[in-house]
Write a structure and sequence with these properties.
With 165 residues, the protein is α/β, with parallel strands linked by helices. The chain has a single domain, classed as P-loop containing nucleotide triphosphate hydrolases (Rossmann fold). 53% of the residues lie in helices and 12% in strands. The chain has eight helices and five strands.
Length: 165
C-alpha cells in the first residue's frame, strides 16, 4: 500500500501521515524533509538560493524516487501535485487523498505555525486568507484529481482508512 496525502500547506498532511503510517505499521515520509536531506538545504534555502523552478524540479525528482517505494505514507508538498506529471504519477502508483480544509482554518494554522513557509512570509491574516483562496482556485484543478477527499480537519484515522479500503 502506498498513500499520498495532498493539499494546501497547513492542512495536516504530515500530522495525518504520521498517524496513518503508525496505524498501518508502515513508514512515513515527509517529502519536504526528504528533499532537504538529499540537498543538504532547507526548503526555504532552496527557494531563496535556487528559486521556485529549481525547487519544483527537485520535488519532481523526489516524487519519482518515492513512487518506487512500497508500503509507505507520503505527505507531499502543497504545490507538488500542480507541476509536471506529478498528480498522474501519484494516482498511478498509489492512493491519493486530498485534505480539503477550509481556507480560514488553514490561515489560522499557518499564522500560528512554527515552520517558515517561503510563499506566505510576511502576510497579514487578511492577506493570507485572500492568498490561500486565490492559490486554491488555481490548484483545485490538480487537487480534485485525487482519488479520495477529506473535508473534516480532524477526521479520525480509522474513518480515513475505512474510506480508502
Amino acid at each position: 500500500m502506498k498513500i499520498y496525502l495532498i493539499g494546501y500547506m497547513g492542512c495536516g498532511k504530515s500530522t495525518l501521515g504520521r498517524k496513518l503510517a503508525n496505524k498501518l505499521n508502515i513508514p512515513f515520509v515527509d517529502m519536504d524533509h526528504y528533499i532537504e536531506e538529499r540537498n543538504y538545504k532547507t526548503v526555504p534555502q532552496i527557494f531563496a538560493e535556487d528559486g521556485e523552478e529549481a525547487f519544483r524540479l527537485k520535488e519532481q525528482k523526489a516524487l519519482h524516487e518515492l513512487s518506487e517505494f512500497t508500503n509507505v505514507v507520503i505527505a507531499t508538498g502543497g504545490g507538488a501535485p500542480c507541476f509536471f506529471d506529478n498528480m498522474e504519477l501519484m494516482n498511478k502508483s498509489g492512493k491519493t487523498i486530498y485534505l480539503n480544509i477550509d481556507p480560514k482554518i488553514l490561515a489560522y494554522r499557518l499564522m500560528h505555525s512554527k515552520t517558515e513557509r517561503p510563499l506566505i512570509k510576511g502576510k497579514s491574516k487578511e492577506e493570507l486568507i485572500s492568498f490561500i483562496d486565490e492559490t486554491l482556485k488555481k490548484r483545485n484543478e490538480f487537487y480534485s484529481q485525487a482519488q479520495y477527499e477529506v473535508t473534516e480537519p480532524d477526521l479520525p484515522v480509522e474513518e480515513i482508512l475505512e474510506i480508502i479500503q
